[in-house]
Amino acid sequence: MSTSQPKASRAKVHLAAPDRLVWLVVGGIVMWGVWAFGSELMLNLRLNHEVQSLRQGNAQLAASNDQTRKELAVGGSPSAMEEAARKAGFARPGEQVYVIVKPSGSASAAAAGGSASPGNGPAAAGRPAARRDGGVIGAIEDFWRNLWH
């Protein structure tokens, strides 16, 4: 009789199925371990980068604080207070104050020309003063300016 043969084949099938299941569980655990390790590694790298940027920010703030402390120390001095008062328009009694200003574009053109030129009328108020080169190029430039304005 060959009754032992089918039992042996059944035993092989039974032994093979739990073996595959064990390998699947072990593979799943290994994959979970790799994923957990990788995610922790990425988190660690991201946090290290954030720590570095915060340290740099702290160093910049410390330098800014030192600069502000120096400015406050200098700002409380009598010479700094006098400078601030003069910038605000104050003067000492009996002192003659001279104010130096830059001339504006229209004031310098009037001072240089002496009188109003024909191109400086109300129509020319919106455009910049024309440069007078003279010669053929100057005449062409004047022609084009007068053509469009």
Q: Would you mind describing this structure in some detail?
A:
The chain is mainly α. The protein has a domain at 8-85. The protein is built from four helices and no strands. The chain has helices at 4-75, 78-87, 105-113, 135-148. The chain is elongated and about 105 Å long. The chain starts with a helix and ends with a helix. Residues 115-128 have low confidence and may be disordered.
List the helices and strands and how they pair.
Layout: H1 4-75, H2 78-87, H3 105-113, H4 135-148
Output the keywords.
single chain; 149 residues; mainly alpha
Question: What is the structure about, briefly put?
Answer:
The protein is an all-alpha fold. It has a domain at 8-85.
Q: Which structural category fits the helices and strands? A: mainly alpha
Secondary structure tally: strands: 0
Radius of gyration over all CA atoms, rounded: 44 Å
Q: How far apart are the termini?
A: 121 Å
Biggest sheet features: none
Estimate percent helicity: over 70%
